[in-house]
Specification:
about 400 residues; alpha/beta
Length: about 400
């Protein structure tokens, strides 16, 4: 089985421009491909997993990845999948975020001569002259076709700015530039990027008379069709300072039963033969599958030691005690002798608002040190914080509050 057939078997391939040519190229290890990452934050998220693991799989098969940091395109912002305009970042913010991205990518792919390359499209986009761009590539884009593109449809109702309308041209120019200067012959990306990617292949064909290829990967969604990689409305980050290894482990340990095998197949590096066998496991082994998924992905991101600590902490907590050293912890600066449970939940990011905290308490979803809290005026004492007050939200979210 070649790498292309493995990607198919894992359910990763969504759309391709020329299947036979792409199959032959990647199976022979002759693809020099790029995936773009806009630097909208200082950490990658679980939503980037598909791209990161794809790069790793293809590199292991002899293909050469180019990680494109969108220092230039981030200054515009991709409208794909958006109903509002992205926040504009400064050049300094973008450069900082790009440096953070590279450190995290190095856990998945190997950079160096003849291996993976990292480039920043700010190096060519920011020096472009607007009139020169219009003359060089403007005639290659049909406004009619652009307006029909899926990536713009969600923005049309509220109003698509001309600022964002240029994003497709910028992304297409990236592929055009990389094709000429880095011998890049393929682009990979999420399925919501299909229109932008086709723009690049068309630009190369029209300007250079040559063929380039594009392949989209299946978006990681749950059984309700919602994008995975968020919890309580917040992103699941790869940076341990933004999402602790314990919380990261718990996110994957708690995926819905209907999604666990899909995640194992698409995200882990377990052999397909082992995964196929797991498909036939009895339903009573669902927690075994979830634990395996959580361990594999936490090991990929945070290393085997942190993954084992997270698993041990989770097992101990659900067993009703044990080591809580890996539990996410917040230091509380206390002025008096106690703090109200609602204020404490907000301080520990267990609730986004006082109203949400109040509802959770009234619904019986909050515990402190193993005791259910039913009074919204409940006070957690200084003595409890000195010992480390253990909070539990629902069945699966644990947090420790300690005195600063």
């Amino acid at each position: 089985m070649g790498i292309y057939e493995e990607l198919q078997a894992r359910g990763l391939i969504a759309q391709v421009t020329n299947e036979e040519e792409i199959r032959e190229m990647v199976n022979a290890g002759k693809a020099k491909f790029y995936i773009g990452f806009d630097c909208t934050a200082d950490s990658l998220t679980a939503g980037h997993f598909m791209a990161l693991t794809l790069m790793k799989r293809l590199q292991q098969a002899g293909n050469q990845p180019i990680a494109l940091i969108g220092g230039g395109t981030t200054m515009i912002g991709d409208p794909s999948g958006r109903t509002d305009m992205r926040k504009m970042l400064t050049r300094e913010d973008i450069d900082h975020n790009a440096a953070c991205f590279k450190r995290q990518m190095e856990k998945f792919i190997e950079f160096g001569p003849g291996k993976a390359t990292m480039v920043n499209n700010a190096d060519w986009l920011l020096s472009l002259n607007y009139v020169d761009v219009l003359r060089e590539v403007g005639a290659c884009f049909s406004v009619n076709n652009m307006l029909r593109a899926e990536c713009y449809k969600q923005r049309m109702e509220k109003g698509l700015s001309f600022f964002e309308f240029n994003y497709m041209i910028m992304q297409s120019y990236d592929f055009y530039y990389l094709f000429q200067h880095y011998d890049c012959n393929m682009q990979f990306g999420g399925d919501d990027q299909w229109s932008n990617m086709l723009g690049g292949t068309e630009l190369i064909r029209k300007k250079l008379g040559k063929d380039a290829h594009a392949m989209t990967i299946t978006l990681l969604t749950d059984s309700q069709g919602k994008k995975m990689g968020k919890t309580a409305g917040n992103a699941v980050w790869l940076d341990p300072n933004k999402t602790s290894p314990f919380d990261f482990y718990q996110y994957w340990r708690n995926v819905d039963d209907a999604d666990v095998m899909k995640c194992i197949r698409m995200l882990t590096f377990l052999p397909l033969s082992q995964i196929d066998e797991m498909e036939h496991w009895d339903d009573s082994r669902i927690n075994e599958k979830k634990e395996l998924l959580a361990m594999e992905l936490t090991t990929l991101v945070h290393g085997a030691e942190e993954a084992e600590k997270a698993r041990a902490a989770a097992r101990a907590l659900f067993a009703g005690g044990g080591d809580d050293s890996s539990m996410p912890t917040t230091e509380i600066a206390l002025e008096g002798d106690s703090i109200g449970i609602i204020d404490l939940m907000i301080s520990c990011s267990l609730a986004a608002s006082r109203g949400e905290a109040r509802r959770l308490i009234q619904q019986g979803g909050v515990q402190v040190d193993g005791e259910k809290v039913s009074d919204i005026d409940f006070q957690v004492t200084r003595a409890q914080l000195e010992q480390g007050a253990k909070l539990r939200k629902g069945k699966k979210v644990f947090h420790k509050a300690v005195l600063a």
